[in-house]
Design goal:
This protein is mostly helical. It has two domains: 33 residues; 155 residues, no CATH class. It is 82% helix and 3% strand. Helix 3 runs parallel beside helix 6. The N and C termini lie far apart (194 Å).
């Protein structure tokens, strides 16, 4: 009677051990700390998810920073140049034009030139009376003197603009070198071009005034020579 009981007890123990061993071998590795179950697989997945989320946040931050930098650069490119020399250039050009407008005797006008040459420089004066010839010669001399005076005044005005042009160049070059954006650099360049145009206008005015004086002097010499010949012919005719 004792042997069957022992066998039954042994069989029951094996079954119990098998039942206990089965869950241990098939279940994932887990640990329990203070009543909290620790699952390494879930922990690794959570860490990977958090890292990916952090990377996305960093990418978004970089995109925002790039957009902010782009907006700042666009604002710089749209900023206007804080200095301007246009009013100074316009004033200098106005002074030169005023000097040209003050031309004595014969103005810079095709109609005035034609009228003056008809009255004082043409061959019609060769048949005029002696007193008329003298009056015409005196008028031509006044034309030449006035033209040379006008040329000197224009030249003096041009020279007077040099200091202002130098100051404008220094201001614009400094502004272009410290320009924050494309618009400021372009505006500085445009003002430098305007300054160059003003200097070319001054040079043109000086050359025109000098050429006018030389042309009137050459015309006066030619008219004087022609009248001298006419007077000499008259003198021979009276003998």
């Amino acid at each position: 009677m004792k042997k069957p009981s022992f066998r039954r007890a042994l069989l029951a123990g094996v079954v119990s051990l098998t039942a206990l061993a089965g869950p241990v071998l098939t279940s994932p590795a887990q640990a329990q700390f203070g009543g909290v179950v620790y699952d390494p697989t879930n922990y690794a997945q959570n860490v990977l998810t958090a890292a990916r989320s952090l990377e996305q946040i960093n990418n978004q931050i970089r995109q925002i920073e790039n957009q902010a930098t782009s907006l700042i650069n666009e604002a710089k490119n749209l900023a206007s140049l804080p200095v301007s020399t246009i009013s100074t250039l316009q004033q200098q050009i106005g002074q030169t034009r005023q000097l040209l407008g003050q031309a004595q005797r014969i103005a810079y006008s095709v109609q005035d030139i034609q009228s003056a040459f008809t009255q004082r420089y043409s061959g019609a004066n060769l048949t005029a009376s002696q007193s008329q010839m003298v009056a015409a010669a005196n008028a031509r001399w006044q034309d030449s003197v006035g033209a040379f005076q006008d040329a000197l005044q224009v030249q003096a005005g041009v020279v007077g603009n040099i200091d202002g042009a130098r100051a404008s160049i220094e201001t614009l070059v400094g502004a272009s070198q410290s320009a924050n954006g494309a618009l400021q650099a372009a505006q500085a360049g445009n003002q430098l071009l305007a300054l160059q145009s003003q200097q070319l206008a001054d040079l043109t005015a000086a050359i025109a005034a000098q050429g006018r004086a030389q042309s009137l002097e050459a015309a006066r010499n030619a008219a004087t020579e022609a009248e001298g010949k006419a007077r000499f012919q008259r003198f021979l005719g009276h003998q």
